[in-house]
């Protein structure tokens, strides 16, 4: 009896607060239920804002590398051999680098907008990362200064962040948060 009355009170409360609605006007009978369940969770804002800030670094690095190819790499501590290697990138590799950095920034912005298109943006970014890093590590053309512990650690952080962002966007889509 106690359980039955507690359930009845919960159901009555849900009806009274508009969480459940028997009203069939509007777009559909489930509108109130869907609206209540798809509120933006606070962690989405945290992941989205941190993602925009983090991914902006890659976009700034890419942009400055393209605008100032003779001075920017040296200003961040790249030696002459690594600079020559980077300036000799084939055009197709530069395209994948751009897809990697701009795709992740777009994904973070789309995540903040609660758009389901964040998932393909992060997937495109991951494809760009796979191709550009694959070329760097598998081609045999990269100088030793590109394979230092610091560079490898930075790459690991980039991979981890991007895979997490893609996983998170998929989870938010599954949870109905992304539209």
Q: Can you describe this structure?
A:
The protein has 179 residues and is an all-alpha fold. The protein has eight helices and no strands. The chain has helices spanning 2-16, 31-37, 42-67, 72-75, 80-87, 91-112, 118-138, 149-174. Helix 6 (91-112) packs across helix 8 and helix 7 runs antiparallel to helix 8. It is elongated and about 50 Å long.
Keywords:
mainly alpha, 72% helix, 179 residues, elongated, 2 domains
Summarize the structure.
By secondary structure, this protein is mainly α. It has helices spanning 2-16, 31-37, 42-67, 72-75, 80-87, 91-112, 118-138, 149-174. The longest helix has 26 residues, at 42-67.
Rg result: 24 Å
Number of strands: 0
- Report the uncertain regions: 19-24, 29-37
What fraction of the residues are assigned to beta strands by DSSP? under 5%
Mean pLDDT equals 85
Q: Count of helices?
A: 8
Helix-strand string: HHHHHHHH
Overall geometric form? elongated
Distance between the termini: 41 Å
């Amino acid at each position: 009896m106690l359980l039955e009355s507690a359930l009845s009170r919960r159901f009555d409360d849900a009806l009274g607060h508009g969480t459940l609605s028997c009203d069939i006007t509007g777009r559909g009978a489930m509108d109130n239920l869907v609206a209540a369940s798809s509120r933006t969770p606070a962690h989405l804002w945290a992941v989205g804002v941190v993602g925009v800030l983090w991914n902006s670094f890659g976009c700034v690095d890419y942009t400055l590398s393209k605008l100032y190819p003779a001075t920017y790499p040296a200003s961040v501590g790249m030696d002459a051999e690594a600079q020559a290697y980077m300036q000799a990138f084939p055009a197709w590799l530069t395209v994948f680098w751009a897809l990697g950095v701009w795709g992740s920034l777009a994904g973070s912005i789309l995540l903040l907008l609660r758009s389901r298109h964040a998932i393909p943006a992060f997937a495109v970014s991951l494809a760009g990362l796979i191709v550009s890093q694959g070329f760097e590590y598998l081609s045999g053309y990269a100088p030793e200064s590109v394979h230092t512990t610091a560079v490898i650690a930075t790459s690991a952080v980039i991979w981890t962040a991007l895979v997490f962002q893609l996983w998170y966007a998929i989870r938010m889509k599954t949870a109905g948060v992304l539209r």
